[in-house]
Each structure stands twice: as C-alpha cells, then as structure tokens.
Amino acid sequence: MSHSPLEIQLITLPEQPGVYQYFDAEGTIIYVGKAKNLKKRVSSYFTKTHDNGKTRVLVKKIASIRHIVVETETDALLLENNLIKKHQPRYNVMLKDDKSYPWICIKNERFPRVFSTRRVIKDGSEYFGPYTSMKTVSTLLDLIKEIYHLRTCNFHLSEEKIDAGRYKVCLEYHLGNCKGPCEGLETEAEYSQNIKAIKEILKGNFKDSLSQFKSQMKQYAANMQFEEAQKIKEKIEVLENYQAKSTIVNPKISNVDVFSIVSDETYGYVNFLQLSYGSIIRSHTLEIKKKLDETDLELLELAIIEIRQRFHSKSKEIYVPFKVDLGEDVKVTVPQLGDKKHILDLSIRNAKYYRMERFKQDKIVDPDRHANRIMAQMKADLRLHEEPRHIECFDNSNIQGTNPVAACVVFKNGKPSKKDYRHFNIKTVEGPDDFASMEEVVYRRYKRMLDEEQSLPQLIIIDGGKGQLSSALKSLEILNLRGKIAIIGIAKRLEELFYPNDPIPLYLDKKSETLKVIQQLRNEAHRFGIEHHRNKRSKSALNTELETIIGVGEKTVVDLLKHFKSAKRIANAKLDELEQVVGVARAEKVYNYYHNK
C-alpha cells in the first residue's frame, strides 16, 4: 500500500514538543503552530471533523509539513511567536507591532543625563521601559526634575575638562534646577547618589527616597536650617502624592505581570499590567484578530509571550484568569480573592474599556468592520446557521378594538432600512385577535416577497411570546418556508427569546450588543405601528354619523366640525346657525336628520 508524501510526513513525526509549519502547493507558509506532542497535534488536523469552516479550508490547502523539535514547551512558545511575526501566515492571528514605545534612558556617562527616547542604543546606558504612553514618561520625568537637580546639557564632563575650566554654568544653574557639575560645584558621588534614587523610583520603589528625605529634613530642622528643611518637605509631599496615586494594591506585590482577556466572535483583547511595589508601572492592551476560531486560552498564551518579549519583562510570576502553560521559568497564579484578585479584576476592566472604545471608533471610522462584528456576534448568540444580514420584525401589539394594523420593520447589516418598512391593515380577522392577525400579516408579507422574487430575510423576529410565534410559523409552513428562515419570538421581558418547538427560552446578557439590536428592532416596530394606527384613527374620527346623512359630503362634515367643534354641538344646533355655515339646503338635511329621528 503506497502512501502520499503528506501521509509519510505524518507517520514520521516525532512525539516531542516542537513547532509545525504548514505549506500550500505553491510552497507558501500558511500556518504555524506549537505542540507538546507534534505527532498527536498535527495528526488531529487530518483525523478530526472541524466545526470551523476556515479550519476545514486550511486542512484542504496543506500540501506539505515541516517541523522543528525543541527542548521545552517554553521554547516552542517562543519559536512559534517569532515565526508568526516573521512570516505572517494567512491562517494565524496577526502579531505585528510597528509602534516604537518610549523609554527613559539614564545615559552611560559621568554625571548621567535622564531623558526620554524611542531609540535603544547599546552603549552601556540603562533603559527603563518601554512605556505604553508618553504621558507616563512625561509625568515621571517631571517628578524627577522636581525632586532632583540634574543637568540637561550634553557637555562631555570629563575630569580633565572640568579642571581646565572648559565650561561655565548656564541659566539652569541660576534657576536652581542644576547644581553646576560642569564647574565642579557638585561632586560625582553626590550626583551618583541621586541617580541611584532615581533608578529605584523608576522601578516603583519610593521607600528609600522617602526615608532619605525624611532624615535630611530632620537634620536641617535640628540645625535650625528651616528654609532648607521646608524645601525637603515639599519634595516629600510631591513623592508621597505621586506614590498615593500610583499605588493600587499591597506594596508587597512586586515584579508581577497581570494578564486578562475578553473576546467576541472576531477579536480577542488581552490586557497587560505590570506591578512593582504595588504600583502599576505599565499597562497595555493587545488586540488580536481571530483567524481559526481560536480559544481564549490559545490567544492568551500567544499574547503573554508576545507582550513579555515586546516589553522586555523578566517578572518571575504572572496572574491570569485561568491556567496557562508557559513552562517552568514562570510561576502562574490564578487569583481567587484578596489583593491579587482585585488587580486581576482591574486588568479585565481595562480590557473591556479598550474593547468598548474600539467599538465606538469602528462605528465612526470603519462602519463595515463594526457591522461585520455585530453580525458575527448575533449569529453566535442567537444560534443561527448564517449571519442575520437582513432581519424583519413584526409587531401587532397595538391592535385594540378598532382599526387593526400591524407593522413590519426591516434592518440590514444591523441598521434600520426605512424604505423597506411596511404597514398592514388587517383584512381577514374580525375583532382584536392578535394570533390570527399575526398569521395573516406574516403570510401576506412573504407570499408577496415570493411572488415578486425578492430576497428573503435570514431572521424573522415576532414581538410576542409562544402564541404569536406559533401563529407566524403556520404561515411559514403554508408558504413552504419553515426551516428556510430562522424565526424567534420575544416575550414582554425583552431578554427572553423563544424558539420554535423549544419550551425553554434563551436568555441573553442584558449588556450584549445582540440584545441592543433586538431592542432597537422592537422599539422601531412599536413606533412605526403606533404611528400608522394613530393616523388611521384620526382619519376614521371624521367618519362620524354625519357622513351617513344622505346628501352630506366630506367637505360639509369638515366645515361643520371646524365651526361647532363636536358632533354633539352640531346635533343640538338651531337651523339658522347651521345655515350660516353650510347654506340652506345642507343645513335642512342635517337639522331634519337629528330632529326627526
């Protein structure tokens, strides 16, 4: 029995951790993945039935497989991440970052300068960061400048040049912002002490600086140098104020990375917080576009590796919402309560806020992406076979006694399509019968659409509970549309959705976007139906007893009502009063009708 080249590759795969790469017939790399056991993982692609359509397409396109065996699972994670970034395969989530983040540099020189930069140069200088926002960098640099007197000039302050008197102090010295190391007015030891304290502050440790300042202040006060003591007191206040704002949890929580994820049908949003001495020194949210219906676990593992690489994190512990496998070098904690849980919840909240902001931006900047995302979400939430690009909602809840009407509103791509709205006057039903009216309206709507060969909706929403839904279903069955169009009923309590032949309703999350769209549909259907009902009632109000009088037309009725304001006053009016409004002949007819009854 002969095997295809692909089958031979599958048979010979090792049962070790590693990274696999799929290539198509043209030799293009289309997918990169990692595995604890290469043979098991790769074989599963060809033996399992995949629910996700894109995964089925990927498997069909695989022409050859290559693999790389590695020592540990951590190595596999890192290699997978690097290969995805290098090749950007079509079926992998996108991991690209063209942003250069700001750093705070402490320059490798005598009397080091401290400044922000986006370029990291390997010259022995120390870099803190990268920071995710320039605002954070500015705040820190302002804080440092307010507390420590550092030079801002870029002179080469070698011992020989200072001794030779090559430089003169500048305006910064006279303003009290610099102590004049260029003229030898500040020693290298003093300056280095400040730099050491600044490094601790950048790491989030304020304790050393505060205790040093406090002992200095006491010393000045003891020596009766109250002006100097006051200056130190002001520095302590600045530091304490900054520390109070930045401390989020217990200061014992230090050198910890926190990761959380929120996701929808098309995107995952991973938030990262880095903690040092109880302060958040870094916050960033990574947006990942899904390609193969990836799970939150897959996205989070990939994002953790990517973010830790990007921000050069060496933290030995991470907090996450569920267990992830990152190898033995990192301690993984899933907090359940207390300060650790508090900081994880904060991360989740950050991810949710970021997602909401992106939704708002998309609505303005990229309405197509916004519509696509909502459609994908509705398909999943409502358990539909296809995206509900065209939805129709029926409402006849305003049928009360006279003038029975119904409304049909239409949404396309999640937005009202007002030109497609339709009103229906109930023709075949006597009296207020909501169920029979619904049956009539649904039948008329889709009979006409079929006759005119119009495109049918993917979803019908019936405003009403099980009874209304059953009535609508009867009409769909007669038209042979049962099963071809998805149909659901909404009860009075909006979050209860009923499906045909299912006694248990589906409950939607009150904050979900799917529910918001359904709410909008129902509100529109109510508004549109009531508007038509009101118009019809006001027209029929003119169709009073007056119009039944032989020889009296609509104009006469309108003239009389305008003058007398009501039918009762017309009935009680004297003949000469009527004559003044509509003339002798018509006045007699009206007068005789009421007085000869």
The helix content, as a percent range, equals: 40-55%
Distance between the termini: 106 Å
What is the CATH architecture descriptor of the largest domain? Answer: 2-Layer Sandwich
The geometry reads as flat
Determine the strand fraction and express it as a percent band: 15-25%
Number of helices: 20
For the largest beta-sheet, the strand count, sense and barrel status come to: 8 strands, mixed
Low-confidence runs of at least 5 consecutive residues: none
Per CATH, the class of the largest domain reads Alpha Beta
Question: Which structural category do the helix and sheet elements fall into?
Answer: alpha+beta
Number of strands: 19
CATH fold node name of the largest domain: Nucleotidyltransferase, domain 5
What's the average pLDDT?
80
Instruction: Give the total of domains.
Output: 5
Fourth-level CATH superfamily of the largest domain: UvrC, RNAse H endonuclease domain
The oligomeric state is: single chain
Kindly provide the radius of gyration, computed on alpha-carbon positions and rounded to a whole number of angstroms.
38 Å
